[in-house]
């Protein structure tokens, strides 16, 4: 697969995935095309050598794996991990607000979002709804309004002359999106709006009532190539749908001699403490079913490895003093190994050596990121997964700018570079 073709697929994937639920649905569609079979956690599994399978939990986390032809205790499992969620604004359960003729929605900040970029954007709404059908059965469905239906207007500078000097945002008061102008007209509640949309999107669903929902606002602008030479990819949710797509497309290309696995968890941006998050039992449960014999499983884990794929901080040209100059990755200069002495990243010399070897073998440049010693860094699913399963792990990813903004920037070469390295790893 060539770089341009690969990146076009990446852009399409992100465009179709405004929420973790949609991301997992999109991944399932891709895996189906590559002859992976959907299996349920509720069923008995009968896994065959060479078989390709995937399993979904809570519609928002997914594990795909290929059963290798060689014995597990001899080879271990080659794993890669990423996360499906991104910082965003989530709509509250009773969100309806009417103020001065405007119909607005109450929202809650999900994860460590940069808030300023959410102003003055055309926003849409997407997520998962639970509804009651005509048979009084609770059903689940994904909804995407797709069109711009909300807007968070900035306050004009005439009313806040210090806005460019020292602007803080009160998320309770200042992040309320404008949905409509109502005057004296009766207003439908948000659940009724969702019911209407549900019936339009699924005419045969028989929906009678929306019981509950998990709905997010998102920027309607599509991801795209940018830069004078189209050397960048800009878009929402590059952290971390970019890694999900790269790892998935690497997995589907593998021959399957060695058992290979991809896990994409939800809730990384809020600590991973959920049944579908990295702190939950999802991956451990699947590994136990892949290798049910305890003695064999212990030997398998010892020979296994995880590449935790999450975006890295690229060097921002306007703020070079925020970086350790010796460990400041540049966009389009290759994937990044992330290292932290306090185990915020799970990399150690053994796993970083292997990643460097893979990069060298694939003919790919590689970079390092270490946070300044007078600043603290974030973390990933890497240390959590390593701790829970005892896996040797390296944290690595594509460098980006604008991390946790409503729109982020990556190098078009780097996505393809990481894809080539992960192909080498799985093979």
UniProtKB/TrEMBL annotation:
Cited InterPro entries: Peptidase_M18, Peptidase_M18_dom2
Keyword vocabulary terms for this entry: Aminopeptidase, Hydrolase, Metal-binding, Metalloprotease, Protease, Zinc
Cofactors named for this entry: Zn(2+)
Molecular function GO labels: aminopeptidase activity; metallopeptidase activity; zinc ion binding
Highest taxon above the source species: Bacteria
PANTHER family to which the protein is assigned, alphabetical: ASPARTYL AMINOPEPTIDASE
Official protein name in the record: M18 family aminopeptidase
UniProt organism field: Desulfonema limicola
